[in-house]
Predict the structure of DUF1405 domain-containing protein.
Amino acid sequence: MTASTLTADRERPDDESLPAYLAPVPTTLEDLGLRFAWLVVAINLAGTAFGFWYYSGQFTQTATALWPWVPDSPLATLFVALAIAAWKLGREQPWLTALAFFGNLVLGLWTPMTLLAFADSYAYLSPVMFHFLFWSHLAMVVQALVLHRISDFPVWAVGVAAVWYWSNLIVDYFVPIVGEPHHTIIPVARDTAMFLEADALGVIAAGEVSFVLLALFLALAIRVKKCEAVSRRA
């Protein structure tokens, strides 16, 4: 099975199109993003640089061995920049695209959720920065949902992404390995009471676990639908 191309869904055989719940981004917008792929790469690299700067304070508080698990969003934008660049160069790497899919979907949803959950405590952010973080992360979700156009998400590649983000969950919330949990710093104490008798750590952990499971389901569902399309054409 070959990777998806820039061809719009409407120009493909009917049985190759994905259902709307797997490909909710309008085809016109998908085409636009892929047509200007190098611009998308550049924007994501700029976002990666900003993200590493944003996490600079947390790096100083984290053991060097655990640094790869600190900058969640910057790594996600780096993954998608590299994945799209590899595709444009004719060398699409399924494992890299899967990492980009998971990272952009998970962090693209988790960050806005966290900003809303602790909105009062994020009052120290300027309105411009708050909205920038909120909407730029939602844009990550959009680009994640376009990646089905450049990859077939083979199961082994989905497995690579699942293992990486499983390890991220472990060190962020459950078994920090070195020091304290390594999740993105939140503006309240971890044991702050929230809602439904949950504390702050429980809320952000529940959100990220849920979004990782969502990414896993969507990636495998895309794989199944693409395989079904091939079978129908055989």
About this structure: The chain has eight helices and no strands. The chain has one domain: 9-233. The longest helix spans residues 200-233. Residues 9-233 form one domain.
